[in-house]
Amino acid sequence: MTSPGAAAARPDPRAPASMSIGEVLGLLRVDFPDATISKLRFLEGEGLVEPQRSAAGYRKYSAADVERLRYVLTAQRDHYLPLRVIREHLAAMDAGALAPVGRPRPSLASVDGRSTGLPVESTGLLDRPELLRRTGLDDGALRQLERDGLITSTSTGRYDLDAVTVAEVAAELGRFGIEPRHLRACRAAADREVGLYAQLLAPLARQSDPGARDRAGEVARELVTLSQRLHGALIRAGLRDTVGQ
Questions:
Q1: What number of helices (H) and strands (E) belong to the chain?
Q2: Which residues contact 193 (CB under 8 A, 6 or more apart)?
Q3: Residues 6+ apart with CB under 8 A from 226
Q4: What is the pLDDT of residue 8?
Q5: Cβ neighbours for 57, distance < 8 A, ≥ 6 positions apart
Q6: Closest Cα partner for 190 from 219, 139, 147, 230?
Q7: Tell me: the pLDDT tens digits for 12-23?
Q8: Is the pLDDT of residue 154 over 50?
Q9: Angle between helices 37-45 and 21-28 (to 10 degrees)
Q10: What is the CA radius of gyration of the chain?
Q11: Is residue 4's pLDDT more than 90?
């Protein structure tokens, strides 16, 4: 297994020695179609990548810069890590230590920030038969999850990464006798949190400067991470008496 630090440092064989921001964006969009120039500038402003500047002041990215950006974007997309944590990983890598996020690869469904190992197409979308096959969920259970609003499909009837995650977790919970109908309370609790966090994020996302959406996305990832930690701690505490620990 390739170490994370070595994977992140491996130069991209497609990359020329010195690239403009537009060229870098073209490379990254193969794996990260939502990447934008404003996103790359935002990550630079956050100190996660430091491209050199030409005499005229234009950004010039090295192959190592591209791999660093791949590392950051993968950590956000596949592991939902906030920039604060990614920055710590990069600092550890720069110091010669290893960070727990691997080389970019096809999207993986995640639970509580940990990869489940379930691959998703590079588009992030699966059709219904593929979703059922990959998650082990049966069609009746999927229909119940859809009726209860835990899973929604796109207008073309396909399913994104979050839908895959919900389906996989529901299938795993089914092994313990927990049926999809029992998960309605999770949907209701999530809706309450979404309402609370949306009030915080909406003013930030509406700002007119180019980096506003990226900052809003970063705050959203921080909130998701904190919610996962809080939810896990509350469940563990609530079950402590039951399991006698």
A1: 10, 4
A2: 227
A3: none
A4: 45
A5: none
A6: 230
A7: 444 555 888 989
A8: yes
A9: 110
A10: 20
A11: no
